[in-house]
TrEMBL record:
Keyword rRNA processing: no
Family: Belongs to the DksA family.
Compartments, as annotated in UniProt: Cytoplasm
Name of the protein: RNA polymerase-binding transcription factor DksA
Record organism: Shewanella surugensis
ZnF (dksA C4-type) ranges: 110-134
DnaK suppressor protein DksA N-terminal domain segment(s): 32-102
PROSITE patterns per record: ZF_DKSA_1, ZF_DKSA_2
Keyword Metal-binding on entry: yes
Role noted for this protein: Transcription factor that acts by binding directly to the RNA polymerase (RNAP). Required for negative regulation of rRNA expression and positive regulation of several amino acid biosynthesis promoters. Also required for regulation of fis expression.
SUPFAM superfamilies per the UniProt record, alphabetical: DnaK suppressor protein DksA, alpha-hairpin domain, Glucocorticoid receptor-like (DNA-binding domain)
InterPro entries found in the cross-reference section: DksA_N, DksA_RNA_pol-bd, DnaK_N, Znf_DskA_TraR, Znf_DskA_TraR_CS
Zinc finger DksA/TraR C4-type domain sequence ranges: 106-138
Residues reported to bind Zn(2+): C110, C113, C131, C134
Length: 147
C-alpha cells in the first residue's frame, strides 16, 4: 500500500489502490472511469467465484443424514449460505447496472439531484448512485415511513 494511503487509512478495494486525484483534474475523466471500471469488474469477479464455490460446496457436502439433528444442521448451514449468495446476486446486479452507467458516461453523478457524488465516496462505495446529502435524506424518509 503506498505511503499516502497508510496516512489516510484507506484500503485498496479489489486489490486496486484508491485513485489519487490530480490538481485541476476534470471530474470523471477517462482515467477515473477506467479506475472504477477495474474495481467493479474485479469485485463482480470475486462475487461470481464465491457463488461457484458455494455451489460446489453444496454439491460436495450434500448428504442424506439419517440423524434428524445432523440433517437440520446441514439444512441451516445451506440456508445461511444461500441467503448470503442471494445478497451477493443482488449486488452483482447493482454492479452491472453501475458498469452500464460507466459505458453510458453517466457514472459519478447523483440520480436524485445530478451533482457529483465525489471520488472519495465512490472509492468507499463504488455502486453509489446518490450524493451523500440525497442518500441521507432518503434514509431519513425511509425511517419515518417504517417508524
Amino acid at each position: 500500500m503506498p505511503e499516502g494511503n497508510k496516512k489516510l487509512g484507506v484500503l485498496a478495494i479489489a486489490g486496486v489502490d484508491p485513485y489519487q486525484e490530480k490538481p485541476g483534474e476534470e471530474y470523471m475523466n477517462s482515467e477515473q472511469l477506467s479506475h472504477f471500471k477495474v474495481i467493479l469488474e474485479a469485485w463482480r469477479g470475486q462475487l461470481r467465484e464465491e457463488v461457484d464455490r458455494t455451489l460446489n460446496h453444496m454439491q460436495d457436502e450434500a448428504a442424506n443424514f439419517p440423524d434428524p439433528v445432523d440433517r437440520a444442521a446441514q439444512e441451516e448451514e445451506f440456508s445461511l449460505e444461500l441467503r448470503a449468495r442471494d445478497r451477493e446476486r443482488r449486488l452483482i446486479k447493482k454492479i452491472e447496472k453501475t458498469l452500464q452507467k460507466i459505458e453510458e458516461d453517466d457514472f459519478g453523478f447523483c440520480d436524485s439531484c445530478g451533482i457529483e457524488i465525489g471520488v472519495r465516496r465512490l472509492e468507499a462505495r463504488p455502486t453509489a448512485d446518490q450524493c451523500i446529502d440525497c442518500k441521507t435524506l432518503a434514509e431519513i424518509k425511509e425511517k419515518q415511513l417504517a417508524g
